[in-house]
Amino acid sequence: MSSRLDDILTSAAWIATALDSSGYQADFTPESLRNVERFMTEHSDHGIAVADGLLATDLGPRLFALGAYLGETVRHSLGGTWEAGDEDPYSEVNVAFRLPDGSFIWPVQRVIKRFQNGLEDCIVSYAIGLGLHLPAHIPAAPARRRSWFRRD
């Protein structure tokens, strides 16, 4: 019988491999959370899995694995420990992560909120709020278009 901690670590490694094989870099760096956010945007819409998308089947285990990945990314960057009570029947959702300062976060619950609410619960913003360093993401400038009102 495996423990909840084993489930967390196994699920995080599994989803990292699955994300990588689907074109989303997942290497447990803070920057990789941008790919998790992109994945969520492309495969869900405010509580609905996109038809034929990667969340259309096995939604619960996949959201758990994404939460485990989020928590493991935090652990790799900031330290901390998982606190999972195997006796809690809802431990998959309620699994907590203790940060080095003693405060708690609930990564699986955050991913579920992201699934339900969309960008309102952005994973990247959450990670930055926790203190993970993600370089500013500056989109490429659009190609310069000729203005109708400019004289050349």
Structural write-up:
With 152 residues, the protein is mostly helical. It has one domain (4-130): Up-down Bundle (Four Helix Bundle (Hemerythrin (Met), subunit A)). Helix content is 48%, strand content 8%. The protein contains six helices and five strands; from the N terminus they run H-H-E-E-H-E-H-E-E-H-H. Helix 1 crosses helix 3 (59-78) and helix 3 crosses helix 5 (107-117). Mean pLDDT is 88; it is low at 141-152.
Question: What is the compact description of this entry?
Answer:
The chain is mainly alpha-helical and 152 residues long. It contains 6 helices and 5 strands.
Which key terms come to mind for this protein?
152 residues; mainly alpha; Four Helix Bundle (Hemerythrin (Met), subunit A); three-stranded antiparallel beta sheet; two-stranded antiparallel sheet; 5 strands; 48% helix
Largest sheet: 3 strands, antiparallel
H/E series: HHEEHEHEEHH
Output the strand order for the largest sheet: 3-4-5
Q: Write down the CATH class.
A: Mainly Alpha
Helix-strand layout with pairing:
Elements: H1 4-21, H2 32-43, E1 44-45, E2 48-49, H3 59-78, E3 81-83, H4 91-94, E4 96-98, E5 104-105, H5 107-117, H6 123-130
Antiparallel strand pairs: 1-2, 3-4, 4-5
Helix pairs in contact: 1-3, 3-5
